[in-house]
């Protein structure tokens, strides 16, 4: 019986964590400069992947800096927002079409989160939603903190996540940011001039 229960691929066809050697081998076979390693359990492998990936992929194009458009918002765009009943508290987030308000995704509620985590995951979910559809429209957020976290590819929350289901989702979001690039501009929503962001949950 193999002593490894998980395999990390840092450099290969598709970097990530794999449960079987066969899946790992498919990513590194004949791949020049492949880097991979076996681990005794999934948690250790996942931590190793996140720790080393930041060093291996520093040359990826930096995300576009967040901007505030002060004239008028772009109609062909998406807006994302998060909400939290208490901080920390019950959390959810969503994305909408900026012009029509049509909802494109909605996640939650989660039993324990924060506003900043919700805003961060909302932006990443918006980027993933666009990537799956080949869409390069801008994405608006009204959270400068969350936009900064996305630029740094890290959710810098102080909320303990050891036994929180959100921990795995945050790790997956950080991993996606580390291993993907995207064409979508990320812009700060100008609440003062435009009113509440269209994805707002209306709880203010």
Overview of this structure, please?
Residues 72-204 form the RNase H type-1 domain. GO terms for molecular function: metal ion binding; nucleic acid binding; RNA-DNA hybrid ribonuclease activity. Keywords: Cytoplasm, Endonuclease, Hydrolase, Magnesium, Manganese, Metal-binding, Nuclease. InterPro entries: Ribosomal_bL9/RNase_H1_N, RNase_H1_N, RNase_H1_N_sf, RNase_H_bac, RNaseH-like_sf, RNaseH_domain, RNaseH_sf. Pfam families: Cauli_VI, RNase_H. The chain has 204 residues and is an alpha/beta fold. The protein has 2 domains: 6-55, Ribonuclease H1, N-terminal domain (Ribonuclease HI, Chain A), CATH 3.40.970.10; 78-188, Ribonuclease H-like superfamily/Ribonuclease H (Nucleotidyltransferase, domain 5, 2-Layer Sandwich), CATH 3.30.420.10. 34% of the residues lie in helices and 25% in strands. The chain has helices spanning 21-28, 42-56, 115-133, 144-152, 166-179, 191-194, and strands at 6-11, 16-18, 35-39, 67-68, 78-86, 89-97, 103-113, 139-141, 186-188. A 6-stranded mixed β-sheet has the order 4-9-8-5-6-7, covered by helices on one side.
């Amino acid at each position: 019986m193999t002593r490894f229960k998980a395999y990390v691929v840092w450099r290969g066809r598709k970097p990530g964590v794999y449960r079987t050697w066969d899946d790992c081998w498919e990513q590194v076979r004949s791949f020049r400069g492949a880097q991979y390693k076996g681990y005794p359990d999934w948690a250790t492998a996942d931590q190793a992947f996140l720790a080393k990936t930041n060093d291996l992929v520093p040359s990826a194009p930096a995300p576009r800096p967040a901007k505030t458009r002060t004239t008028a918002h772009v109609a062909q765009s998406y807006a994302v927002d998060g909400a939290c009943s208490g901080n920390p508290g019950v959390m959810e987030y969503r994305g909408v079409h900026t012009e029509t308000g049509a909802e494109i995704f909605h996640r939650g509620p989660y039993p324990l989160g924060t506003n900043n985590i919700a805003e961060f995951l909302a932006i990443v979910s918006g980027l993933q939603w666009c990537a799956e559809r080949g869409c390069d429209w801008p994405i608006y957020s009204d959270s400068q903190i969350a936009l900064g976290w996305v630029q740094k590819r890290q959710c810098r929350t102080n909320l303990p996540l050891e036994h929180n289901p959100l921990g795995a989702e945050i790790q997956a979001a950080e991993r996606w940011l580390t291993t993907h690039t995207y064409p979508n501009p990320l812009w700060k929503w100008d609440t003062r001039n435009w009113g509440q962001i269209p994805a707002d949950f209306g709880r203010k």
